[in-house]
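Board notes (copied after class):
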Amino acid sequence: MPSEIDIRWLNRGVREIHPTKVRLTEVAAGLIEEHGSQGFTVEQLLESSNISKGSLYHHFQDFHDVIRQAQVMRFARYVEEDIEALSRLLLAASSREDMFARLDVVSRATHDSARSPRRSNRIEILAGARHSEDMKNALGSTQARLTGAISDLVREMQSKKFVNEDLDPDAIAVFIQAYSLGLVVNDVSSEQVDIEKWHAMISRMTRGLL
């Protein structure tokens, strides 16, 4: 049975975690970014981190446990970055049209082809929860935090009369994430949709819906 995933990664509680565990997890996260979750060995992890095998097995059940923890850390970082970017832009909106203009900026940045690896990474991490209840629970709390943060932004926009008050904030939050993450289907297609046409459609759709 896998060890319980340390969800303190998700609440910026890294200082509460043993520094050896932090080091191993951060190095593993970096190696995953570079080689993929199955593209390196435990020996490479130990060499890159300069930590002994005994220390690894003191803090983790096995090598796969390190990978799971590193994936949770990566996911948490993605979430923090998304929350910060959305909050910084949308809370400064001065009108409904200004809000949509700012949302266009967010969409362009989020949907850029350079972000294709990040979309794939998030899909891979989420898929890893399918056969791990611990990972599902850990990712679930982080995902709920992202959805909740977006919902709060929507409520703030509704209070300013920038967004239709008849729409459910949570539903809007999930919808925004779904069409952004769903662009992964275009990333892997041999015949991709023109990204400018995609941006134009998303811009028109959000203005009509919200």
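Comment from the instructor: The chain has two domains: 13-60, 68-208. The mean pLDDT is 89.
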